[in-house]
Amino acid sequence: MGKRTITTKETPAADAVEAKAALPTPSKSGKKKIASGILNIEATFNNTKVVFADKQGNVLFWSSSGSLGFKGAKKGTPFAASKVGDVIGDKAKIAGIKDADVVVRGVGPGREPVIRAFMAHGIEINMIKDTTPIPHNGPKPKKPRRV
Length: 147
Known about the structure:
Elements: H1 14-22, E1 36-43, E2 48-53, E3 59-64, H2 78-95, E4 99-105, H3 111-119, E5 124-130
Parallel strand pairs: 1-4, 4-5
Antiparallel strand pairs: 1-2, 2-3
Helix pairs in contact: 2-3
């Protein structure tokens, strides 16, 4: 059978304890404070998606009515959109956001409820901009039906 090695339990070395203490600890002062940002709303007939970004366009947090658990036709309702605005307003309040610019895309029923629910958290709206894509002539229409 072979030689056996005898192992003994030792206390952790002082070097290992010092090495653990030397690791940098995450501090709250390392986070940058953001006072304002851009609220991007995409309101379609089937869903409402909301993204909150800082002034440079870096996404801070997002939500949609589908991610909140609404399914099917209920995702496109104004009630689902107001819940999305409520969630984003909570996150923005916790992050210390004071004011925001709003950019709205789409013609869905969730355009206004998101803004109303977001404003209910005490965040000031500086401007509202509508960037809904508008076709300038667009594709060729279908041929008329011959009955």
